[in-house]
Amino acid sequence: MDFPPLGTLRIASPADALRISIVATAAFRYSPLFDWERPDHAKYPEDTLESYHTQFLNAIQSDDHIVLVQEDAYLGNENHKTTAIIPDGTGGTTPKAGDGVIVAVISIKLDPNSPHKGKLKNNKGLHLTAPENPGRDLNQRRYDEWGTLSVAARKKNKAHKDSIISMIVVHPAYWRRGHGTRLATWARDLAIKDRVPQCVSAAPMSQCLFISLGYRRLDEIVARGDEDDPRGAKTLLLEFGCEYRGGLCKRRLLRWIIMVAKDSLMGLVGLTQRTLGRVQFYVFGNLWG
Ligand SMILES: CC(C)(COP(=O)(O)OP(=O)(O)OC[C@H]1O[C@@H](n2cnc3c(N)ncnc32)[C@H](O)[C@@H]1OP(=O)(O)O)[C@@H](O)C(=O)NCCC(=O)NCCS
Question: What Pfam families does its record include (predicted)?
Answer without folding.
Answer: Acetyltransf_1 (PF00583)
